[in-house]
Amino acid sequence: MTDRVRKYIRQYQLLQEGDRVTVGLSGGADSVCLLLCMKAVQEEYRLQLQAVHVHHGLRGEEADRDAAFAESLCRKLAVPFRLRHARVRELARREGLSLEEAGRILRYQILREESNGGKIAVAHHRDDQSETLLFHMVRGTGIRGLAGMLPEKDGIIRPLLCVGRAEIEVYLQSVGQEYCVDSTNADTAYARNRIRCELLPWLRDNMNPRVSEHLAELAEQAAQLDAWLQEETVQWLDRYGERTPRGIRIPVKEWKELPAPLMAPVLLEALEQCGGRRDIGSVHIRQIEALMEAGVGSRASLPGGREAEREYTAVFLGSGREKTVHELPEWHMTVYPVQKGQKIEEKQYTKCFDYDKIKDTVLLRYRQTGDYLELAGTGKKTVKRYMIDRKIPAAVRDSVPVFADGSHVLWIVGYRISEEYKVTEQTRRVLQITVGGKEDE
C-alpha cells in the first residue's frame, strides 16, 4: 500500500521536500490510511505534518467518539492534532444548503485556515473517483466533469486516488489498525451514497468487477484532454472574448466558426471566468448554444445569479445587464467665426456644429428618456431607436456619451451628429468639440 502511494506521489509530484501538510482526519478507514501513508513518507520528504479533525456536530455521541479516536491516533503516531467544531446546521439554514453541502464547505474552509498556506491532504480514493464520475454523468457533464477529482488542485492533494476502498481495508487489517465507521455513509437518502451502496456494487457484480479501475482510467484520460482543451479555449477567449466588469461577451460569428469539439468547452471556460462552473450542467450549455440562434434580447438564467443574453452580434454571459456607472470622458470646445466657403475639418472625435442654432446649453451626459436627433431622409428619431438600428449592444448603450441641447442630441459620440446642427454655407459661427483631449485618444 505505502509503496503504491509513494509511487503515485512521485508520478504527480504531489509532495516536495519540506512541505507543510495538513491531513483531513475524520477517523474513518480512508483518512486513517492516508495519515499512515503520510507518516510513512514523512522522513523521506521531511514533511511538517499535522492532522485536523472537523467535528460537524451532527451525529451526537458517534461524532464525539470519532473526534476522540482521531486525537488518540495522532498521539500514538506523534502527529500534531487540531480539533475544530463547525456550525453546519447554522450555515445550511442561513444559506439554504443541504447539511452535506454545508459540511463540505466548512470542512474545506477550516482545513485551509489550519494549513496556513501549506498543502491539504484528503483521503479520496479510486472508488470515490468512480462515484464522482457516475454522479457527474447522470447529472449531465462535459469533459471537465469526466476528469473527476484531480491528484492535485489548488493546494489540495489526493494521494489515495490510486487505490480502492477494499485495498484500504485489507491494508488496515494487515497492520492491525482500527478505524471508525460513520453510520451516515449507509444512508441512501444521499445520491452519492446510493451510487456507493447500490449502483457500484451492482456494476461490479453484474457487469465488470474492475469497473472502478476502468472509470479511474477514463478520468485520467479526460483530465489530460481537458488540460489541452482549457489551453485552447483560454487562447480563443483571449483573442475573441470581450471582458467587462460584469462578465464576458462571446462573438456569435467567431464562435460558430469553432471546431465542434471546442464549442461547448469555450462556453464552459467563459462561465469559469465569470463566476465559476459550480452547478453548471449540460442543460445550461444547451441554453447558451440556443441563444446563438435566437433573437436579440433573448435571455436564459444560469446558476449563481448569472444570466446569458443575446445581443446583436454576441452572447453576453455574466451577472445580469451591465449598469456600471461610467466616468464621462474629457472634452473641450471652442467657438470661432467662419467665412462662406471656408473648409471645416472634422474627425471621428472632433465634430463641428452651427453655434447659432443651439437653443440652450450644450451638456455632455448619457442618454435620457425622450432624447432624439434629426437624421437626413428620415427626420426625427429617438436616440433609443437609433442605437437599436445601429446595433449598439443593449448592455453598453447607457455608457455611450452624448452632447445634448435639452432633449435634442447634437452628437452621439463615436457615432452620429444631428442634421439640425450641421455646418452649412449659412453658418457664421462654429462650435468645435473634441472628446478625449486629443483626437488620437
Note down, in words, how this protein is organized:
- With 441 residues, the chain is an alpha+beta fold.
- The protein has three domains: 2-124 and 148-190, Rossmann fold; 241-318, Uridine Diphospho-n-acetylenolpyruvylglucosamine Reductase, domain 3 (2-Layer Sandwich), CATH 3.30.465; 331-435, Phenylalanyl-trna Synthetase, Chain B, domain 3 (Phenylalanyl-tRNA Synthetase, Chain B, domain 3, 3-Layer(bba) Sandwich).
- Helices cover 41% and strands 20% of the residues.
- α6 crosses α9.
- The longest helix has 30 residues, at 211-240.
Entry summary:
Helices cover 41% and strands 20% of the residues. The chain is α+β, with helices and mostly antiparallel strands and 441 residues long. The protein has three domains: 2-124 and 148-190, HUPs (Rossmann fold, 3-Layer(aba) Sandwich); 241-318, Uridine Diphospho-n-acetylenolpyruvylglucosamine Reductase, domain 3 (2-Layer Sandwich), CATH 3.30.465; 331-435, Phenylalanyl-trna Synthetase, Chain B, domain 3 (Phenylalanyl-tRNA Synthetase, Chain B, domain 3, 3-Layer(bba) Sandwich).
Supply the number of structural domains: 3
| The CATH top-level class label of the largest domain | Alpha Beta
- What is the strand arrangement across the widest sheet? 3-2-1-4-6-5
CATH fold-level name of the largest domain: Rossmann fold
Strand content: 15-25%
Number of strands: 19
Indicate the radius of gyration in whole angstroms.
32 Å
Structural class: alpha+beta
Helix content: 40-55%
Span between termini: 66 Å
Main β sheet profile: 6 strands, mixed
Helical region count? 14
